[in-house]
Write a structure and sequence with these properties.
- The protein is mostly helical.
- Helices cover 86% and strands 0% of the residues.
- The termini are far apart.
Length: 283
């Protein structure tokens, strides 16, 4: 039998990348860490009760003034988190999720636009996305730790890789679902490719793009416990301590807080996508 040492080749390649581009990885790590710290400082600056009212108000605005179900859920859910003493952990997790989501969108949306406007681009991007989605999430932690050591930065990097594919796929899908007669009409009026993209395709694809944002946030939240294994902290660290110390109550409280945060972010992004779709139908 012929042995193919793919793992050894990948390990050698990974160490070569680390040694050759160490300066680049240091810069990337510092930028991501600064982004996470910025979100943490913003979320931790208001007192918990003030931040509770802000999050409740955002839910009310997102769903519309006549619908208060999500706002009521946010008020009760985040009050419960404060009562469990997990507010600071929740804000740390939210900061990590927001920073990872922003980074995933900054990369994923342009890649999705490229794949949506180019057949060649889609053929190149699709197998890469398949690889990213099917590779076990734990595998991402190994090179992330090797390049960025332990802490929140490798957790964010692993989260971005795991959570980005839906953003790319749904952006591509949204652009490809724009009716051809609309594109032909814009061509007839003399629109340039950039004008067609920003004034026709992206506005019409916005509901699909927002659905991608929703899925990216949900996948980022699903990574918080795994990222805690390499020092990301937050609610994932709370759950991980509960597992390692066999403290059922601690793990359950951390899980409940993650569920509340996930439901809140899911409903917020879903409401924004629904409002965008309704505006298009009315228009």
């Amino acid at each position: 039998m012929i042995t193919i040492p793919i793992g050894d080749w990948f390990e050698t390649f990974t160490y070569w990348l680390r040694d050759t581009f160490s300066g680049f990885f240091d810069v990337v790590g510092n930028v991501i860490e600064a982004c996470i710290t910025l979100f943490e400082n913003i979320l931790a600056f208001p007192p918990p009760l003030v931040m509770l009212l802000i999050l409740t108000g955002l839910a009310w605005i997102a769903c519309g003034w006549r619908r208060y179900g999500l706002a009521l859920f946010a008020l009760i859910g985040f009050t419960l988190i404060i009562g469990m003493g997990l507010w600071s952990h929740t804000m740390q997790t939210l900061a990590l999720v927001l920073a990872s989501t922003v980074l995933a969108l900054l990369i994923g949306v342009p890649v999705g636009i490229y794949a949506g406007r180019s057949e060649t681009g889609e053929r190149i991007v699709r197998p890469i996305l398949d690889f990213m989605q099917t590779m076990p999430a734990f595998v991402y932690l190994i090179p992330a730790v090797l390049f960025f050591s332990l802490g929140k930065v490798p957790g964010s990097i692993a989260t971005v890789i795991f959570a980005m594919p839906p953003c790319v796929r749904l952006t591509t899908l949204g652009l490809r679902q724009v009716p051809h007669d609309v594109l032909e009409a814009s061509d007839a009026f003399g629109a340039t490719p950039m004008q067609q993209l920003f004034k026709v395709q992206l506005p019409m694809a916005l509901p699909s793009i927002l659905a991608g944002v929703n899925q990216t946030i949900m996948l980022a939240l699903s990574m918080v416990v795994i990222a805690a294994m390499i020092g990301a902290g937050g609610l994932g660290g709370q759950v991980l301590r509960g597992i390692t110390q066999l403290r059922i109550g601690m793990g359950f409280e951390g899980g409940i807080a993650i569920v509340i945060l996930a439901m809140y972010l899911d409903r917020i992004t879903h409401a924004l996508g629904s409002r965008s779709a309704r505006k298009q139908e009315e228009g």
